[in-house]
Amino acid sequence: MSSFETEGQNFFARLDNSPAAIRAYLEERGLSAGKRFGQNFMVCQEVRAELVASLGASAGSRVWEIGPGLGAMTAMCLDAKLHTTAFEIDRGFVSHLQERFACESEFRLVPGDCLKTMPTEMRESSAPEFVLGNLPYNAAAQIIWYLLGRENGAQRLVFTIQKEAADRMLAAESSRSFGPLAILCNLEYETRKIRTIPGECFYPRPQVTSTAIALTRVRTVPHDTKTAILAAADAAFSARRKTLLNNFGKALGDRPGAGRRLTAIGIDPSRRAESLQQADFLKLAEAFPELGQARMSS
User: Could you tell me if 87 and 187 lie in one domain?
Assistant: First the structure.
């Protein structure tokens, strides 16, 4: 047993908030914050508390935490009496979490890549009401796409992600940053920025600025409609600098036919996707139904 572990809660208070304590503990256990998994531990207690509070989850709620690391936010969730399922890919941190929360009856740990394990959890366990995560930069977009693209999404999701990814999620219609990720977020959720998080709030300190965002479910879109809209968005933005005529002509394999369909729904074929409004993508989905059908069957 390490000298830190024998000190109980005092040990964890230092470990959760001190880069020096984290560094010493990792060295002692032969662990590391690997670039492979995009691991950066949040060492600012105030920020962690704000993120957990932003969930708005009441005692007994089902929460998924993605990338718990050493368990600093996990402990806050358990203190709030939340049923917490944590997804951790790093084997060394899996062992740490098993030891740290061995006596917590409301804690469940799912080892492995969450993009592979979440679908199984969805089928075999209750879907989460809330999702929390200090997401790894190299997998954040894929994780968000999965969680927002499925049926019966969570009531609220709170993430820490790279600022550039957050900007794409928050992008206004008809702006240069507007694209499939913003369209996905807008379908069923209201997305807001919680705060900017500077690099000194993490260990190791990243070379980028992070943003905390919250997504609150405000409507439900039928899954087949959602799929069709996202398929249309993918086609529209397949070559961002090219026209809708070019992109849908390529997707359809019929450029003149694509032009006629675009004109019929009142969208100029010479426009680019970034100039469109959110509502235009429903029109596109209805005009090009075979794109959604192909996506559903894939």
Answer: yes
The structure tokens 């070379």 sit at 207
What residues are paired with 227 via a beta bridge? none
Tokens 């098993």 map to which residue? Answer: 98
- Does one domain contain both 209 and 285? no
- Closest by CA to 36, choosing from 92, 85, 74, 109, is 92
Give the strands of the sheet with 130-134, arranged side by side.
107-111, 83-88, 62-66, 130-134, 156-162, 210-217, 189-197
165 to 26, 94, 99, 142, 187: CA distances (angstroms): 29, 27, 34, 11, 17
For residues 36 and 158, membership in a common domain is answered with yes
Same structural domain, 140 and 267: no
Say yes or no: 193 and 287 in one domain: no
- In our burial notation (b when 16+ CB lie closer than 10 A, e otherwise), range 260-278 reads ebbeeeebebeebbbebeb
Question: What gap in Å lies between CA 286 and CA 242, rounded to an integer?
Answer: 21
The domain that holds 162 is classified in CATH as: 3.40.50.150
Burial class (CB in 10 A: 0-12, 13-18, 19+), 117: middle
| Residue of 70, 51, 237, 86 whose CA lies nearest to 160 | 51
Instruction: For the chain, 298 residues long, give each residue's pLDDT as a single digit of tens.
Output: 444 444 567 899 899 999 999 999 999 998 887 656 567 899 999 999 999 999 999 999 999 999 999 999 999 999 999 999 999 999 999 999 999 999 999 999 999 999 999 999 998 888 899 999 999 888 999 999 999 998 889 999 999 999 999 999 999 999 999 999 999 999 999 999 999 999 999 999 988 999 999 999 999 999 999 999 999 999 999 999 999 999 999 999 999 999 999 999 999 999 999 999 999 999 999 999 999 999 999 8
| Alpha helices (H) in 60-113, listed in sequence order | 72-79, 91-100
253 CB-side CA count, 13 A:
2
Q: Which residue has the tokens 């997707």?
A: 251
Q: 232 is in which domain, residue-wise? A: 223-297
